[in-house]
Amino acid sequence: MSRVVVGLSGGVDSAVAALLLKQAGHELSAVFMKNWDDDDDEAYCPAKQDLQDARGVCERLDIGLQTVSFSAEYWNRVFRHFLDEYQAGRTPNPDILCNQEIKFRAFLDFALAHGADAIATGHYARVGKDGMTRLLRAVDGKKDQTYFLYTLNQSRLERSLFPIGHLEKTVVRELAAQAGFQNHDKKDSTGICFIGERKFREFLERYLPRRPGEIRTLDDKIIGEHQGLMFHTIGQRQGLGIGGRKGSAREPWYVADKDLGNNILRVVQGSNHPALFNRRLRAGRLHWIAGSAPALPFTCTARIRYRQPDQPCLVTRGSEGTGIVEFREPQRAVTPGQSVVFYDGEICLGGGIIEAAL
Q1: Of 214, 223, 228, 355, which is most buried, counting CB atoms within 10 Å of its CB?
Q2: Contact 305/341 with Cβ under 8 angstroms?
Q3: What gap in Å lies between CA 256 and CA 266, rounded to an integer?
Q4: Cβ proximity of 54 and 10 under 8 Å
Q5: Cα(172)–Cα(307) distance, rounded to whole angstroms?
Q6: How far apart are the first and last CA of the chain?
């Protein structure tokens, strides 16, 4: 059997991944990554409890645990990009970049340098081979995380194991309970990768200055003031501070667009306003897991957000290395900075960063 290093987060998914690898007879060790050292506020980022839970798993399985910090890599490769994107008025997805730069680059390189044959994580995904290495959807469609893994390439995917990808979440928790893991009923983590759940506006203000501006309707009526375009995303309803207005419909307001040049937030009323929907988008920084793009144009399905049902689309070539994605049905809240991820049945083909709705 191979030498495998499993990334333990303190959660139940990576714990059961380790359990299954141990049962399969792999030479197993574990790494706990703590990559956010800016503060020790356990209310938002309970790293001490997570480390304690990871230690408990290792004790039950009789495997070694090493704590490793990739804080510099996280700051330089993930968090700086996160701030730059928000400052530019876009809405990034740090979990995707975190997987690309930390879990399947820094961690993988560390493990290989220390004699491992592969790493393993608790992601809900699978790997298949048919002449090349494929990233496949998890059996549990509600938990499938291939959307966050589309930036993996052949060499990194070949060295990565996803032991729980064939299991339903309920089974994972049952196995954890049977193994005596104290974290078997621990709630799933949310929030920013390695940073945790926070009051987002307050957190962002620690790093980026406010830049107030006008909130306007599509016909240019000024109806309020925002504190910074970075605090808002396309399709957002909460936090606009507009409320009901005399002479207007009673429907809530939604963010429809950001005028970056003039620092104006454009809003519309009603969750189904036509301005919230687009049939086409332009995506850049395209990445294909197979190593090259399918012959363009091609049809497939795609998601523009995690857990969105698959949407049939046509992908054609755009200018300067971009791709144009045309959906069969208009899509709500196409958001620059987020990712569009492509699928052929159960195979995740790759994806790109949304540059603009068209």
Answers
A1: 228
A2: no
A3: 6
A4: yes
A5: 20
A6: 51
Q: For residue 297, give the nearest of 309, 280, 285 by alpha carbon.
A: 280
At residue 151, what are phi and psi to the nearest 5 degrees? -85, 0
Instruction: Find out whether 125 and 135 touch, Cβ atoms under 8 Å.
Output: yes
| Bridge partner residues of 314 (DSSP) | 299, 326
Residue 153, both tokens: 């390439």
As a whole number of angstroms, the distance between CA 334 and CA 324 comes to 13
Per residue in 256-302, pLDDT (tens digit) is 999 999 999 999 999 999 999 999 999 999 999 999 999 999 999 99
Catalytic residues: 98, 193
- Could you count the other beta carbons within 10 Å of the beta carbon of residue 288? 15
Residue 342: which residues within 8 A CB-CB, separation 6 or more?
150, 300, 301, 302, 315, 348, 349, 350, 351
Tokens of 156: 């990194």
Give residue 345's pLDDT.
97
Distance of CA 175 to the CA centre of its chain: 26
Beta strands in the chain (DSSP E): 3-7, 27-33, 65-68, 118-120, 126-129, 133-136, 160-161, 213-217, 222-226, 253-259, 264-269, 277-288, 298-303, 311-317, 323-332, 339-344, 347-357
**Integer Cα distance of 232 and 89 in angstroms:** 8
Q: Which residues have C-beta within 8 Å of that of residue 63, sequence separation ≥ 6? A: 18, 22, 28, 29, 30
Looking at the DSSP bridge assignments, the partners of residue 356 are 282
Structural element, H or E, at residue 171: helix 169-178
291, amino acid identity: G
Convert the pLDDT of each residue in 48-82 to its tens digit: 888 999 999 999 999 999 999 999 998 899 889 99
84-108 pLDDT tens trace: 999 898 999 989 999 999 999 999 9
Instruction: Give the global pTM.
Output: 0.93
Q: Which residues pair with 303 in a beta bridge?
A: 341
